[in-house]
Specification:
single chain, 2 domains, Ubiquitin-like (UB roll), 29% helix, DNA polymerase, domain 1, 5 helices, globular, alpha+beta
Amino acid sequence: MTADVVCGPDAAPVMLRINGVSRTVLVEPRHTLLEALRLDLGLTGAKEVCDHGQCGACTVLLDGRAVYACLTLAVAVEGQGVSTIEGIGGPGELHPVQRAFIEHDAFQCGYCTPGQIMSLVALLDRIPNPTEDEVRGAVAGNLCRCGAYPNIVRAGLAAAAAMRARSSTRSQRRLVRIPSPRGAGVRGRGAVPPHPNLPPPGGKEQSTSSPPPFAG
């Protein structure tokens, strides 16, 4: 369904990209993205609380931007990338923001928590090193009736630091040490074994009668 196609009043198939997976749902044009997520797809992480775009409990990411799912029509986001709390992490590997919420006790009843987390994920994807004011601004549209705001802000800053540290570690792991043609070690970094596909120091091809070093 494209933007210039008029649909309705009956239900029509709409293709949604939810957490990287294409899903086709049959929805009426008046149905919101929140209704499609919760009722048609069984993704209940986004909460239906105010249903008027005032509390932020239904916050999801639309192509990386935080939006209220209760104010977004499902037919209007066909083909766009929708990310929900179910798609950013799991029990085996929590997202850094999820982990920071646990470590800093940034939730109580939990109803606002998915929306708070998604708003912070959107912020940290754009600004890896936010200020406290930027963290506060990111969750300004997410109400917490339990009053956990100080811990939510602390969790946001802690998650930003954890994500920067993880990114730095991954960058270091991507550094590749290239051996010299003779397989000599790199000074100060220890010996580097010769690559199995490189000729030995004498320049002759290795014998095919025996497997090369490190062959499986």
